[in-house]
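Hi there,

I know you've been waiting on this one. I reran it after we fixed the sequence typo, so this is the corrected version. Both the input and the resulting structure follow.
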Amino acid sequence: MRIAVVGATGLVGGEILEVLEERNVQFDELYLVASARSAGLKKTFKGKEYTLMTMQDAIALAPDFAVFSAGGGTSLEWAPKFAEVGTTVVDNSSAWRMSPDHKLIVPEINAHSLSADDKIIANPNCSTIQMVVALEPLRKRYGIKRIVVSTYQSVTGSGKAAVDQMMNERNGIEGEMCYPHKIDQNALPHIDVFQDNGYTKEEMKMINETKKIFDDDTIALTATTVRIPTMGGHSEALNVEFKEDFDLEEVRSLLEGTEGIILQDNPAENLYPMPLTAHKKDEVFVGRLRRDESQANTLNMWVVADNLRKGAATNAVQIVEYLQQQMQEA
């Protein structure tokens, strides 16, 4: 079993390596792939030193899996070349997500749709993943008619350059700007580029990816995505209209009984999800459960997850684990 991590020097690449170690994913060989300028440098994993290699070097070794976190352009160019030598690619970029020929996978929801023929598998957007994980047990029970989501997203979702900008601003240091405005002590209702319809690309990702993952184009969904100066993870305020009425205690029971979800919903004790408590965790945290008293069959909820973990690295590694299990059972 040979696994390549493409983009091993980036924020998500580092998290992928941490998740591989923490979950004790089994492999015989590990290939760490980076840009040509980083090739030849050393990186330590589980006490062993690895030499960073180029894409061409890794393709020549034909790994069983390649977990990509190197940007959409890189994925479009190189993922098919890995697939040609029989490698199964799990890609963290947006390159393949909405392609009708490629599956968009959150293991808790639709891993069962995967087959040996799927050589390029798309990992959804971080904000989409945590939302659909939190909604899946409720969707199965009540059906979903409409979702209104507002996000409060960590600067880590924009990568190291954004973290550097925030920390420079916090420390009074002039530096390169990742965002068009200051981010520290600010909130930017602008994630990714604006589209002709006035929504940002991030907002349209959430709308389109949710429908694809749930395999349900009838769900009405609208989104507003906002970047805030936090580090631990993304937060989301959800307003969900179900097809059927719900009992709030049953909602709590469904969420508590779902693996991968942690319910933190005790306002009297100031218990609710926060980015700080989700940081470095693989679970999706849910709280602030309450009826929308302005509309029937509608629930308000607050959802938080570490965007570099379940929102990216953990979800990708879980896909690899699922496929490894299928291979062993075949």
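Quick highlight: The chain has a mean pLDDT of 96.

Best,
R. S.
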